[in-house]
Design brief:
0% strand; mainly alpha; single chain
Length: 110
């Protein structure tokens, strides 16, 4: 490598030391710009989080309404299956049970 190439290489590298000097007002301005950028990113994050949570809340509300409807249907079905007329009908048809005659009823005193 010749001398000219060495000098050109030495001037283009960071080995000769770069000194950066900022005044106090420039540092304050840079700090405020960084704070503004961080604040803007925070607002974007919170807004996105709020949107996602609102969507999730809406899904949970729809599911809650569906489950409440199913619960009401099951309660209605439960009361229908337990009605006295239903029990009597099942007893007579499926179990061949009959209401006893008054002569067949026995009273026991304790």
């Amino acid at each position: 490598m010749n001398a000219v190439a060495r000098v050109a290489l030495a001037e283009n590298t960071f080995t000769k030391g770069v000194s950066l000097s900022f005044s106090l007002s420039e540092l304050r301005m840079l700090f405020l710009m960084i704070l503004c950028l961080v604040s803007a990113l925070g607002v974007i994050y919170v807004k996105d989080l709020n949107r996602r949570l609102s969507i999730n809340n809406q899904k949970v509300r729809v599911e809650t309404e569906y489950l409440q409807s199913e619960s009401n249907k099951l309660l209605l079905e439960h009361s229908a299956w337990g009605a006295q007329s239903r029990v009597q009908q099942v007893a007579q048809h499926q179990l061949a049970m009959q209401i006893p005659l008054s002569s067949e009823v026995v009273m026991i005193k304790i």
